[in-house]
Amino acid sequence: VTTNADDDGTRVQDLLDVILKFAAGDLSARGTVTDDNTSLDAVMAGINILGEEIEANLAENERVKDSLRAVSLYTRSLIEASLDPLLTIGIDGAIMDVNAAASSATGVPRSALIGSNIAGYFTRPDDATAAYRTAFADGFVTNYPLVIVDRAGTTMDVLFNGSVYNNEQGEVAGVLAVARDISDRRRAERAEDLARRDGLTDLYNHRTFYSLLTEEMERAERFHRPVSVLMLDVDHFKQVNDEHGHLTGDHVLRALGALLTRQVRSFDRVCRYGGEEFTVIFPETGSHLAMSMAERIRHAVAVEPFDIGEAAHITVTVSIGIATYPEQVNTISELVKAADHAMYTSKLQGRNRATVYSPNFPEAIPDGFLT
Amino acid sequence: MSDEVHVRVARLWLGDDGIVRIMHSPGVEVSLEDARATMDAYLQIRDGASRPLLVGTLGMKALDRGARALYASEEAARVATAVALIVDTSVSRVLGNFYLGLSKPHIPSRLFNDEAEALDWLKHFLS
Question: What three-state secondary structure class fits A203?
């Protein structure tokens, strides 16, 4: 194939036109490849393929970008759809991202949350730090109880759950965490607990005493184990009220409740039965051991100086009765009645003593003896 | 040798040596549709076997992106064992090199100037 200079000049101009169109953004431009099969034709064929590839790759990039945008929007909408605070945390504890619920819970705008340390938004910053560090160390953390506090000081009980996520290199990049709002549950638990306790002493109340004793007796029956009940009454408590006033009387009852709680084992249950009467449930405890514990309590009360203000103290004594199931009785009402009976026997025998129930006790309690 | 089959851009036949020849017409510009027609024609003549292909690109002026992708695809690799491209012009050499470099065919593929050398190489891929 022969060509002349004019032909070559025209072909070079064709090539230049295609390249300039590419430069202007028209990647669909193509040059003509002639049948001459010259080197310029080969260059043009190559330019055409390059244009085709660049055009296709740019289109593919746009598709990928659109796809990433869609995935990003979808992920964002999922995160924002959560009513619980969601956040991602870096290994240094810095918050990397949050949803609207997190801003709402803390009262801090998203822009201010991002980059700040997570620990600062909880009532116990050390616990919050321990929670996310657990996630980094173990790969996850489950139901870690924390309390979020907002700018106004309002708190939100949450369970902190989180797990690590990795970057493209497979390295740990952060922790994705959700703080599940359990404020309603906590409020319900607190209300339930309040209903189970005596307002003055914070001990279990009369109703809860029977509920706990029923459970213990069922357990005792199932496992063939004993359970003992201690009934305690403050001696001459009316005199305390009369001489020092009811506020002092209430103070003594509170202090006595605290002393009883200190004297018993962790699994024993101390209750305020009513007035100046207290009960203690001793699970898996026979009458002999229960009597030893009763004696210890009686002595501890007798030597305790109860502060009544203005640097003054008083001492009180208690009368105690002990009864044990199934050694002595068969039912819950018999058990309580027997402990009560033994307690009044202690009163009859001079007070400031502990007595184990015996079926040989006289049935009748003298009238007017109760105070 | 089988009967020749003709498509718009090429003629094909199965040689007695078990190698299929695909000889393009001078000056053709091969589109995806042409590539599909050529592949369909190959499937007719291959006699049920996966065969090596001798592809003549005499005077070919273009092989578009879709056509390159189809020839380089796994789909093509399932019905052929190797491809020897005879590049006898500057243009076809450019087209062939872009095909090997950018499309990355799934079966062994090489460029040759000489048909005899190409056939010798293809014989290694007879099943």
Answer: coil
